[in-house]
Amino acid sequence: MLRRLVPVLLTLVVVALGVTALAARPDNGAPRRSADFVVLVGAAGLRWDDVDPQNTPTLWRMAEQGAIGSLSVRSAHRPTCPVDGWLTLGAGNFAAWNGPRTGGGCPATGVSVEQPDRIGANLPDQESVVAYNQDKLAWGATPGALAESVRCSVAVGPGAAVAAARPFGRVDRYAPALPEDPAELLGSCVLSIVDVGTVDDDDPVVRAGQAREADARLARVLAARPPNSLVLVAGVSDTDSPARLHVAVADGPGWDGGWLTSASTARAGYLQLVDLAPTALAALGRPMPERAFLGRPAVTVDDRPDDLRTAIEAPADADREAAAQRRVAGWFFTLLAAAQLALAVAVLPLLRRARRLAGPHGPAPVSRRVVAVVELLLIAAALAVPAALLADAAPWWRGHHAGWWFASVTGLLIVGGTAAVRFTPGHDRTLGPLGAVAGLATLVVGVDVLTGSRLQLNGVVGYSALEGGRYAGLGTVGLGVFIAGSLLCGGWLAQRFRRGWRPFVMVAVGGLAVVIVGSPYLGADSIGAIALTAGVSVAAAICTGGWLTVSRLAWATMAGLAVTIGFALVDLGRPAVERGSLGRFLAALGDGTGGLTVHRSSTSNFQTLVNSPLTVLALAGAALVWLALLQPWGGLMRLFGIYPAIRAAMAGTGVAAGLGGVLGGAALDVAGAAGALVVPMAALAALRVLDHSTDRTRPDSGRPGGEVGATPPGGGPAGGAAGRDPARDGAGGDQAGVGSDGGGPAGGGSRGGATRSGGGAAAPTVDVPSGDPRPAGDADRPAGSPGGVARGGPSAAGEDAAPGGPADPRLPSQPTGPPTEVPAT
User: Fold this and answer.
1) Cα(224)–Cα(706) distance, rounded to whole angstroms?
2) Cβ–Cβ < 8 Å for 43, 81
3) Which sign, positive or negative, has the C-alpha torsion 150, 151, 155, 161?
4) Which tens digit of pLDDT belongs to each residue from 350-401?
5) Are the beta carbons of 420 and 394 closer than 8 angstroms?
6) How far is CA 705 from CA 709, 737, 767, in A?
């Protein structure tokens, strides 16, 4: 009865851990009314490297006394051109102008502004722009939603008119240029939006002049600002490819110093363009529109350096790192995919020739040196992604040749990590490298997450603030590596315990990983936590051996659904502005707009599938596993039979990585990152298992803790398996597949005895007590060591023979002719 309750209890533990991790929410500070007036000042293209005390003194002083941050100007179009940026600002959602697009830059787009009454203005194109955003684009943005949320708004300049126009095109108050004394204009409405110009020239001298002119207009705005007002300054857009990070400054009551942040970024010092509209309404104490903004109100956090020059160096350096990351990431993953493909091709002939034949015929074995070199290359390939993540601890992006600096640092870390694995105690064991590599990968990603995910932000294998998808927690690649590393660690550790304890070990390790991935304080990835819960449940269900039966799959599915439903109920109970992605999606389903989320996810999956180099890694890894490693000569089935916990870990990794990628809109990227770690280690372990494919186990008494090397009375082998081929009998427990290619699931069949050769001695034996969790022949023998040494068995010929009977022909100490046994295939 208790045994039947174990899956139920373990499932409940995983579910409880998952829901607990996802339900907690950090307190980012509740937005509050802080001003009677809000003035949004925009300068397209303005970056932090344009700001200095000599050329832009007004902005410098404002930044000294206010809160600052880096602004990601993502919109519905890449890059975000000025008209797209202004439109996104007014929509509070990712929007784009419906004009023609040529090339990858920002063509000059004229906005028609009519002034029929010299008070307000009208944008004749606004209705078509609104229809384009709601019918053609996936975000469902409503241009003019910010203006619709207040009674009256002011726009100064054509860019501001785009942001302040209501959905039907009307601008309440409009001035084509900033007056010399704008006090009356800015005080006429609670919301004013001012366009102070564009900073877009490539010539440093001309660009400095543009920034100086924008700063002079800002000085006039600050001099005429209404009392008790909040002034927000933002570089509202890019002006060309590639995208960059821009200026964000807030100055007003309650915005004294500190970093700007919001719930949409969850990262101190980072803000999105879509956050500015909800920030303005929150400061004015106005309710958000019925169809909620995609952005979240900004708040301030402390820990900003007192010296402004030191403080703005951080966002300026982040902008340089993000720009360098975009250039380097593409070729890194392309080279990684090419290297792993080349290794896969190199491993194939080694797999075919790795089996040590017992007879005189067959191909000559591969040189041990060649095998050792290939093993080191497999370890290096598996450590490439963790090394690339760790490389961001060094400021490689500040050099003139950033790509070469990154390659050098990453190469050194790969060499160091490979050496560490090579000289780790237990490296010569079959699972030694797999456990060491999985541990290193999990440690690198886990420590980074626990310390704030600083290496992943703008990192080559992390996520870019320029993309606007994620600013904190685990990224797509980090999630894949962490899933694979943590589950392989759990499998490696569980394999060292007796069978009955393995599910508990797997749940303990996997449950901790679920908490790290799902906690909003750490990984902040609810989709990843739900996917990992399913993977852990699968791994725990089959880590003791046997097939993935319908009942076991049902328990794993129920665990994933339980976590999803539990978190959904908790998330839906929160206020709309505090909900996570799952809660927002379910709320959208309730009001009939959930189709947009599904459309965005499917579009993202397709684009990622087609364009990402990680797709190549995932497909190439799957091809190597299916077409080679899982073949009778590939060794992976044998590995799975001998080490059921490793099989469980790899199966769980496949489930979690597949679900995490598809549900998260990343297609095969999560699976590709996981495969970059798992596939090389699977190939290495398969090579080592095949090297011992002719090893045999000495039958024991069949009782737990049976005496090593003991022979039952009468001289026959225990269990009555003498002279039978284990390939036909099917090995049982952890020894499934010994002498075969894993012909049955671990845990099924019976223990096979030694195989007789035709007229000669059987292959040497290795004794493993019954009930010992260590697999026969492979667990405790160094890779490449000669078989045929009985551990703990008698050394004198005839010691195990029955009194007065003939010598046992299977004893290795008895002189015989050369072995002629051919392994079962």
Assistant:
1) 92
2) no
3) positive
4) 887 776 655 556 566 778 888 899 999 999 999 999 999 999 999 999 888 8
5) no
6) 12, 22, 12
| Type of residue at 700 | D
Reported as type and span, the H/E element at residue 276 is: helix 276-284
DSSP H helical segments within 165-247, as ranges?
A: 183-186, 204-223
Would you state the structure tokens that stand for residue 784, as one six-digit string?
Answer: 């490449």
Degrees, nearest 5: CA angle 67-69-72: 145
Six token digits for residue 691 = 């090297």
Q: Taking a C-beta distance cutoff of 8 angstroms, is the pair 734, 773 a contact?
A: yes
Question: Quick one: residue 288, left, alpha or beta (phi over 0 = left, psi -120 to 50 = alpha)?
Answer: beta
| Rounded Cα gap, residues 84 and 130, in angstroms | 12
As a whole number, mean pLDDT of residues 285-302 equals 84
- Give the model's pLDDT for residue 109: 64
Q: Within 13 Å, how many C-alpha atoms sit on residue 201's CB side? A: 11
Helix (H) or strand (E) holding 16: helix 2-23
Within a 10 A sphere around the Cβ of 127, how many other Cβ atoms? Answer: 13
Q: How far apart are CA 554 and CA 470, in angstroms?
A: 33
Please, what is the angle between helix 476-494 and helix 384-391, to 10°? 130
Q: pLDDT class for 766, splitting at 50, 70, 90? A: very low
Check: CB of residue 668 under 8 Å from CB of residue 606: no
CA–CA gap between residue 774 and residue 182 (Å, rounded): 82
The C-alpha atoms of residue 319 and residue 403 are separated, in whole angstroms, by 16
Distance between CA atoms of residues 428 and 425, nearest Å: 8
The two tokens of residue 666 are 């990343």
**Mean of per-residue pLDDT scores for the chain:** 78
Q: What distances in angstroms separate CA 709 from CA 704, 808, 814, one per listed residue?
A: 14, 13, 16
- For 488, list phi and psi in degrees, rounded to 5: -65, -40
Contact predicate 196/219, CB 8 Å: no
Rounded to whole angstroms, how far apart are CA atoms 781 and 775?
10
Q: What is the CA radius of gyration of the chain?
A: 33
The rounded distance, in Å, linking the Cα atoms of 149 and 593 is 20
- Asked if residues 43 and 198 have their Cβ atoms less than 8 Å apart, the reply is yes
Structure tokens at 383: 């450590």
- For Cα atoms 637, 638, 643, give the angle at the middle one, nearest 5 degrees: 100
Nearest to 196 by CA among 224, 162, 158: 158
CA distance 632 to 318: 51
Calpha distance 759→274 (Å, rounded) = 81
Angle (CA) 62-237-246 rounded to 5° is: 45
Contact present, 718 and 800 (Cβ < 8 Å): no
**pLDDT in the model for residue 212:** 94
- DSSP states of 324-361: HHHHHHHHHHHHHHHHHHHHHHHHHHHHHH-S--SSS-
Q: Is 400 exposed, middle or buried (0-12, 13-18, 19+ CB in 10 A)?
A: exposed
b/e per residue 158-187 (b: at least 16 CB within 10 A): bbbbbbbbbbebbbbbbbeebeeebeebbb
Q: Which residues neighbour 68 within 8 Å (Cβ) at sequence distance 6 or greater? A: 247, 248, 249, 250, 259, 260, 269, 304, 311, 312, 315
Give 204's contacts (C-beta < 8 A, 6+ positions apart). Answer: none
Distances (CA, A) of 693 to 304, 316, 806: 62, 58, 29
Query: What pLDDT does 647 receive?
Result: 93
Contact by Cβ (8 Å): 817, 759: yes
